[in-house]
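Quick one, probably user error.
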């Protein structure tokens, strides 16, 4: 619409109205001048508003810019870096004291919305000979199915007991080393490669957490002593291949009856095969049979203000191999426990 035309029409209407009511109101010339001045001011304001108003195209561009800026406030992806490291001095009863660089463990998280997360931890250690050892502690892809269930796939920390999955980092575990039997080559499993379903749910006023998994089986180590073979240890450190094709199924159920106290029960069962000989030639092994492999465990944790009391027990039992394998021998049992 032409603004000047609108202005002329309004002015004409005002003047006509003034003349039509002249006989009644008989306004003075000054009053008519004031009315015309007010109308002119209103028309100037209308022109300015029309001049400053945005077109539809300009509004769409502004909306697009606002939406783009909002993506930085609520991104679909998140990246987080964490980790821990420790240095110290260790003086064991039967060894000379030494300074050491214990562990440097960077942790990486990548999350897409509330659906999927990738998490990984690398571990760098300096050995007694000065060589740097690098290990992949864990790497998993987690799918958040709902508020009570997460599907985990990859190499994950063993859910058997509490220590490996919750307490093993040096900034949490205040002791110079892991409790006997809970480190590498111990009675308690360290890591697994497979799939795990974990989460938690309430039962009335009681809270619970759970983990159920299936993974590649561990490997056994034998030694030759006094003219015969016997089992020397269990290596349960998340192997990327299953030598005997037999899987392990296990899990843990944690019960929290009240705030600060948790009781956990763990179990795993499957098969394991001898794959190496301690201080010997592992290529001599042949026809090794898959042995029964069973793990049971129990743990508790009680925290009251700054005081924390916890303990754990794990027993690993490996069955006998009565076949014709090179390292065929009786079974063995390893058990360990600690309180802190």
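Nope, works fine. Designed sequence:
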């Amino acid at each position: 619409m032409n603004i000047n035309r609108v202005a002329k029409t309004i002015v004409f209407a005002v003047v006509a109205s003034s003349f039509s009511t002249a006989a009644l109101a008989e306004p003075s010339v000054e009053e008519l001048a004031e009315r015309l001045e007010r109308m002119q001011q209103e028309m100037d304001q209308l022109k300015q508003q029309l001049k400053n108003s945005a077109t539809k195209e300009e509004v769409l561009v502004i909306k697009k810019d606002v939406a783009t800026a909002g993506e930085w406030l609520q991104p679909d992806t998140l990246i987080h870096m964490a980790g821990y490291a420790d240095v110290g001095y260790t003086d064991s009863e039967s060894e000379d004291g030494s300074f050491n660089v214990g562990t440097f463990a960077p942790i990486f998280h990548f999350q897409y919305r509330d659906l999927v997360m990738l998490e990984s931890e690398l571990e760098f250690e300096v050995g007694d000979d000065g060589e740097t050892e690098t290990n992949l502690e864990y790497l998993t892809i987690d799918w958040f199915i709902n508020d009570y269930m997460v599907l985990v796939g990859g190499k994950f920390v063993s859910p058997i007991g509490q220590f490996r999955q919750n307490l093993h980092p040096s900034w949490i575990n205040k002791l110079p080393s892991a409790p006997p039997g809970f480190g590498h080559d111990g009675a308690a499993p360290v890591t697994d490669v497979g799939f795990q379903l974990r989460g938690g749910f309430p039962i009335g006023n009681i809270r619970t957490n759970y983990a159920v998994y299936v993974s590649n089986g561990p490997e056994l180590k034998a030694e030759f002593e006094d003219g015969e073979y016997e089992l020397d240890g269990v290596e349960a450190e998340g192997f990327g291949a299953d030598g005997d094709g037999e899987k392990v199924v296990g899990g843990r159920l944690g019960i929290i009856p009240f705030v600060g106290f948790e009781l956990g029960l763990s179990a795993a069962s499957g098969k394991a095969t001898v794959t190496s000989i301690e201080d010997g030639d592992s290529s001599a092994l042949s026809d090794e049979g898959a042995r029964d492999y069973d793990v049971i465990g129990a743990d508790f944790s009680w925290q009251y203000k700054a005081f924390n009391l916890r303990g754990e027990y794990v027993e690993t039992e490996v069955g006998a191999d009565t076949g014709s394998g090179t390292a065929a021998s009786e079974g063995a049992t390893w058990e360990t426990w600690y309180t802190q």
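The radius of gyration is 38 Å.
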